[in-house]
Amino acid sequence: MAIYKILGYNDKWSRAVDTSEKGNLDYLMFANLEYGHPEVQQDVKRWGEWLGKEVKIRGMRLDAVRHISADFLTDFIRHLERTVGGANWFFVGEFWKNDVGSLRKYIDRMNHRVSLFDVPLIYNFLSISRTKAADLTKVFDNTLVKAESNHAVTIVMNHDTQPFQTLEAIIAPYFKPLAYALILLRQSGRPCVFYGDLYGIQGEHPFPISCNGKLPDLCLARKLYAYGKQHDYFDSPHCIGWTREGTWDRPSGLACVMSNWRPNQKIMFVGKRHAGEVWTDSLGWHQGRVVIDRMGFGTFPCAGASVSVWIHLTAEGRDKLGSL
Fold this sequence. Notes:
It contains eight helices and 13 strands. The chain has 324 residues and is α/β, with parallel strands linked by helices. Strands 6-7-8-13-10-11 form a six-stranded antiparallel beta sheet. A five-stranded parallel beta sheet has the order 1-2-3-4-5. Strands 9-12 form a two-stranded antiparallel sheet. The protein starts with 37 loop residues before the first helix and ends in a 12-residue tail after the last strand. The model has no long low-confidence stretch (mean pLDDT 92).
């Protein structure tokens, strides 16, 4: 099998794609659209307009952007901004490279108009989940969500990293709830939940729903309680935690603590407004109650190799947890 360069219009390899490996990434799986050709450019722009006018989308996932002309994509987005209100659209690109510097360089090149999936974070999850006594405090080291939080789409798994796929990255099952808590319940990044983790995968290579069925509860906890000032407690290699104080209109807040080794606990501040409240683990993986003291602190435990999300016992919407 070979790739042929056809003589004629613009018969050079594109220089507006990623050239950091294999010489040039203009082609992917032996398929290509010649984005340097005016007729191709106009056709794709018309398609984008049609989507905006007829389907009324308000954002796009741009697949395999390492292999597409960045110059054309910049022009394409500007065209949508001029014609169908694309200035308010959200664009996320798949730039699959485990190097945060390359991701930041691409975001700069796209004038910060495109967010990217946080590939390094996936591989941090993978490494920590598969390494005995790994250091949880380093989970965000060299990640896009740490370097460019406003342009990071955080994921735990996708269709390419699921088992038997080309970029297979099988995070240890016990760590999946910890990973989802880390992307869903914190301030930074835009989390994206994988369908297969939520509903399971059927077919030739099936795998079950993740997080022991608690992923819907983690999603609902984000919607209801992940608001307000965040306090981090990344001060122990095998047990980390953080809290959210809540806001005036979403006052409940939460406290999340996790361990990748033995049972553990953390004393954490949730805010003086919560003094006297009784909190319990909304996931049900740790029994018992935590009473918030008059200074706004509580001692929040979790089981070994597990995560607990502590919430006020009578918080609004609490009765919906466990019912999804």
